[in-house]
Write a structure and sequence with these properties.
5-stranded antiparallel beta sheet; 6-stranded mixed beta sheet; Creatine Amidinohydrolase, Chain A, domain 1; 12 helices; 18 strands; about 425 residues; 2 domains; alpha+beta; single chain; Creatine Amidinohydrolase
């Protein structure tokens, strides 16, 4: 279903025809999560069928979540080594899960096509044991001992083991297959993103409410994270919640420190939220006390760039068109040379950052056509050195591309004192 298939009432609801919330209720229709799981697998199967690959063996947490709905314990630095999924044409996903997940999965996830316990995929001997004892039988039983097998991320020991034990299997890029499947969001996904934004807005508001001179950045981040967990958020958008004030935004420190917030400081918050597997990435800059004229100039430039970029997010335009709109607005304030070197925006969904990217300038960057039901986080950042109280400003919003134009999903307020 595209946005053009929705009724006016569904558009007006802001939830694509669904209500959201943490629990099922008997008095209204909420997201059909079982149906959404089936639709996501169907999307992946369609993408697989046009890829020329025979099967997908995936390890990235977002791909595993998309295909199986596994909400796993994540060990820092090992998110792609803990759980996997095998998807073959026309079959239900087979979950390859950490032993610590197995009992719960057996008891609560009946929609899977199979479940196998695996080790942490890093010790070469254990990786080879998985390939020999689990993967080889799975592929042979499916008639895929000579398959073109797509994968997203894998250790060298896994690649060597597959070559030794399955010499007729050819490993290919499977992540691109999943990126295509995930790029346009299903109606149920958009409803879940709306709820993630509601939580992310609340997290951002808590941080803004707790910002005042005499507090450390750590304290403000802690208050915001408390709200994240109070409201049922699974994770922050970033593993390093981002609260930066004053000089820590010129240049940007993209993590929280023990700096004491002072009168006259700009302060930036970027924590967001994950809910039911979907991420909201929302950022706001505020001022402690009264802003200087230079701080207002920077904020106005970023705000106008944000509005211009959002306005350009229409079907038929490209990510390049959006980037040009942002850069042109910044240039009107003579700040073009101070736009942060990172990309200006990114796709978002079950991946906290996912293609396509807006404003990427590194080698290999290519523009993507905007289509209805794509969702982006757009986040221009301008910083100037030597500004008292800091001269770094970023604003970040979640935007859904519809056939009628952009729809902003985030609602956290901008700072009127900096716009005055």
């Amino acid at each position: 279903m595209s946005s053009s298939d929705l009724t006016g009432a569904q558009h007006a609801s802001g939830l694509r025809g669904y209500a959201t919330g943490p629990f099922a209720v008997d008095w209204e229709e909420r997201v059909d999560l079982a149906g959404l799981r089936r639709d996501r697998v169907r999307r992946a199967q369609e993408s697989l069928s046009t890829s020329g690959l025979d099967a997908l063996l995936l390890w990235k947490d977002e791909n595993v979540r998309y295909l199986t709905s596994l909400r796993a314990q994540l060990i820092s630095g090992k998110a792609t080594s803990l759980n996997g999924v095998l998807l073959t044409a026309g079959e239900l996903p087979v979950l390859l899960c950490s032993g610590g997940e197995r009992d719960r999965v057996d008891a609560t996830m009946p929609w899977l096509g199979g479940i196998h316990s695996i080790p942490i995929m890093e010790q070469a001997e254990l990786v080879d044991g998985f390939v020999g004892a689990t993967l080889v039988p799975l592929l042979r039983d499916a008639g895929l001992a000579g398959a073109r097998l797509g994968t997203d991320q894998a250790p060298i020991s896994f690649i060597h083991s597959v070559r030794d034990r399955l010499p007729d299997v050819v490993l290919e890029d499977g992540d691109a297959v999943m990126q295509r499947a995930r790029m346009r969001k299903l109606p149920g996904e958009i409803a879940l993103l709306e709820e993630a934004c509601a939580i992310g807005d609340s997290v951002t508001q808590r941080a803004l409410d707790e910002t005042r001179a005499g507090r450390r950045e750590f304290e403000i981040a802690g208050d915001a994270l408390q709200t994240l967990h109070y409201l049922g958020g699974e994770l922050a958008h970033v593993a390093t919640p981002y609260v930066a004030s004053g000089e820590n935004m010129s240049p940007p420190h993209r993590f929280t420190t023990d700096k004491i917030v002072r009168h006259g400081d700009l302060l930036f918050v970027d924590i967001g939220a994950q809910w039911n597997g979907y991420f909201a990435d929302i950022g706001r800059t505020t001022i402690v006390g009264r802003p200087s004229d230079e701080q207002r100039r920077i904020y106005r430039a970023v705000y106008e760039a944000q509005m211009a970029g959002i306005a350009a997010m229409r079907p038929g335009n490209t990510t390049h068109d959006v980037a040009v709109a942002v850069r042109s607005a910044v240039a009107r304030h003579d700040l073009a040379d101070h736009l942060f070197s990172l990309f200006i925006g990114h796709g978002i969904g079950v991946g906290a950052n996912e293609p396509p990217y807006i404003g990427e300038t590194l080698p290999g960057a290519t523009p993507a056509m905007l289509e209805p039901d794509m969702v982006f986080a757009i986040e221009p950042l301008v910083w100037l050195p030597g500004v008292r109280g800091g001269g770094g400003v970023r604003l970040e919003d979640m935007v859904l591309v519809t056939s009628d134009g952009p729809r902003v999903l985030s609602r956290a307020p901008y700072d009127e004192r900096l716009l005055a």
